[in-house]
Design brief:
- It is built from 10 helices and 14 strands.
- Strands 6-5-4-3-7-1-8-9-2-10 form a 10-stranded mixed β-sheet, sandwiched between helices. The chain has a 4-stranded antiparallel β-sheet with strand order 11-12-13-14, covered by helices on one side.
- Strand 12 and strand 13 form a beta hairpin.
- It is globular, with a radius of gyration of 21 Å.
Amino acid sequence: MKTAPADRPNIIFIVADDLGYADLGCYGGRAPVSPVLDALAERGIRFDQGYANSPVCSPTRFALMTVRYQYHLRGAAEEPINSKSRGSAELGLPADCPTLPSRLRAAGYRTALVGKWHLGYPPTFGPLKSGYDEFFGPMSGGVDYFTHCDTGGTHDLWQSSEPVTEDGYLTDLFSRKAVDFIERAAPAADATPFFLSLHYTAPHWPWETRDDQDMAMSQELRANLFHHGGGNIHAYRKMIHHMDEGIGWIVDALKKKGLLDNTLIVFTSDNGGERFSDNWPLVGGKLDLTEGGIRVPWIAHWPAVIAAGRQSAQQCLTMDWSATMLDAAGILPGGANGASSAIDESETPIDPDFPLDGVSLLAVLRGTEPPFRRRMHWRMNHRGQRALRDGDWKYLRVDGHDYLFNLAEDERERANRATHQPLLLDAMRADWEAWNVTMPEIPADASVLPGYSAKDMPQR
């Protein structure tokens, strides 16, 4: 029988933007920028082998929303969706595609997105068309933190389906809007649990902190929001700290409303770090299928279920967390190992035309199951990249070169074992190619927009 509403958790899915693997204190960070997130990890569980579905933002968000490999959808072939997609009726998340919020809403959850959408532009696409009851944030990938204008200088801040103007530092606006949603949803939380997506733009460029509220930098950035000539690690770390403070406001709001114990809070990044990020000991970053581009922080906090102080080596992807949330809500037709769950699927069925690729981690959170085998596949149009992680081993192709790494021994991917173990390389390459034929081909007109190149800064 379906899980009773009173037993279902409220869910908050917090996604940072371009956060590096080692930026947070609990992941070895070199500066004390994340006391709130560090405390959530200490009182919950931290995953050391967690991955993003893509090393670039919008494809990961397609996977997060659909609980499927992003390659199923044309819009996710854009690396990433950019302002040239404005007005397109093809490059976005189709309104008829079931999503994490639409499934949760059908099961009785109140849903809201605060923060970055980046899954296509109105009028064809938008959060309210894909399962959210409420929305506050930008439609595009990056905006100025004070003017709230995108890379083309277009004002890009929305309240539900209408443009809105609000003064303030964007990270703080998101945090306050999230608190407001919790306070409004709290009275009904026992009977009507809520799902809040909180998708920060921090610490994505431009490199602005609260200290830049005189708007001088915003005026300078009107010509180039990529901020090639600015930023530093100090500003970057402040941006992370501003986000961490806001998450603290949210935790405090949950405490005041008596909701913290049965609220599942999940925190991650949409991809690996960018220019000023700390990815140690990993190599590479955003847009790379080396570990620095796809391995990201994963923290889960749920006192009613997760014992404090846990650390997990479970390998997992963004879409697995979406599946976990469906499982926690009692609407997933399979558990962590694919077994049928004890729910009435007739009430909230998974559409057979949109089978899930994500795998639930609920048993891992509960501590009732050890880590299980999770093969994970990636591909990128950029530099013809492909990757497969299977246990300790990783198969990687970049610029036509094939590599084989034992990540248990060599997380920096410096010791190529391809010539030493050719049979394993052949087997993993065949596995990747067999998986790839189950996905649509990358369209010839799919675009790649790195944002910067060797002319802007030296290669990694």
